[in-house]
Amino acid sequence: MNMRSNDILGIGLPDSGIAREATELLRDTRSELLFTHSVRVYLWGALAGRRKDIAFDPELLYVGAMFHDLGLTGPFHSSPLRFEVDGANAARDFLRGHGIAEADVYKVWMAIALHTTPGVPEFMHAEAALLQTGAAMDVAGRFYDDFTDEERDAVTAAYPRADTFGHDIIDMFHEGLKDRPATTIGTFNEDFLACKEPRFQRVDMCSVILASPWTQKRCRNAL
Length: 223
Hints:
By secondary structure, the protein is mainly α.
């Protein structure tokens, strides 16, 4: 596979037709925040893969990175689905349109759909594990100390992570989720709504269980 010549510490960005089209598709969102974040996600993931000697497909990981937060953008704001699923579905359709093998399409779909689910992707295929690593590193600084100062400096010099990035990405998540709060139940996506909307009410799973039809039936039978 062709890789772009301006690599970062030996990690190049894929330069295939599919990779270039995925880049342009994300660029069309007009969000520099989302674009630079997504490229950094790929680079953190690829660097982690090299360090851990994990074999991965750079093109699949790159497409996963380009699409992983696409579900937060304008066209999906009124979607009834979780934003991760919207992004995964968009990536699936994109890859199928390029004749990619269904097994590889499934890898990318799963990687995107589960990238906000800690504790699961690291036990799956390489692209899922590395996409989750890259996203967690860039957003929350998880695995921060696993990367060297040289790696962190090189990535952020090429694709800057602004001092306001934390607030900016919280705003991006809020904008993408505020019209579909039901899709955040049971995920940390609830935190973005709770942070920005003081009246937001989290769903308490214990209350759901205790108010379920099973509990109501037992109460009726006890009368």
